[in-house]
Sequence to fold (214 residues):
Amino acid sequence: MTSHLSASTALPGKFITFEGIDGAGKSTHIDFVADLLKAHGKTVVSSREPGGTPLGEALREVLLHQKMHLETEALLMFASRREHLAQVIEPALQRGDWVISDRFSDASFAYQGGGRGLDVAKLEALEQWVHPHLQPALTLLFDVPLDIARARLDATRTLDKFEQEQTTFFANCRQEYLRRAAQFPDRIVVVDSTRSIADTRARLTAIIENLLEL
Ligand code: TYD
Fold:
């Protein structure tokens, strides 16, 4: 195995990540994609970030509810990710399982980079440190205009630290997500999440069947 192979080619399993600003609707579709993969005979490990391990979940609690310096926030996101990779993602991919993660490093670029304004070079350095040779085989980026995301959030839950941010913050997150989608078109697929659930499911089925090479 050479050091430059991506996860999709170097390891027997496949890694799929779900991304989007808060309220974009990714949570609505994660179980659907997991069930689709299982129906095609895959063993699926579903996880999330920040979180995914006992330590990661403890960090999530702190990250979602305490104010902190923006570099502390970025470092803790990547600390949670390091543990998640070591304990969950890499062993599952080695076994040949399919791993679905509700958020991964693109969220750090979007939220800590785009939203909070942390220098992208620092995030790239952290990414190089934590997962230099592993990227998702597929990232589904759920995209909606800000007013729709905000209406969905307000209708469904008590807001955490990130969800309480203002419109400009989310506009910058969304812009960074879309910039990364343009930068990595082979990995990141933008899913128009303003459509009906049925339409979005049809699109997701086509994308996943393509990945399954059906
Ligand atoms: P989210 O995935 O939206 O979970 P839930 O649906 O339970 O609210 O919440 C995670 C929050 O953490 C989200 O607001 C984005 C933020 N986040 C970052 O800021 N940076 C990161 O690297 C990750 C993984 C998440």
Notes: The chain is about 55% helix and 15% strand. Residues 23 and 150 are 6 Å apart (CA to CA). Residues 22, 27, 49-50, 77, 102-103, 107-108, 111-112, 160, 162-163 surround thymidine-5'-diphosphate (CB under 6 Å). The longest strand covers residues 14-19.
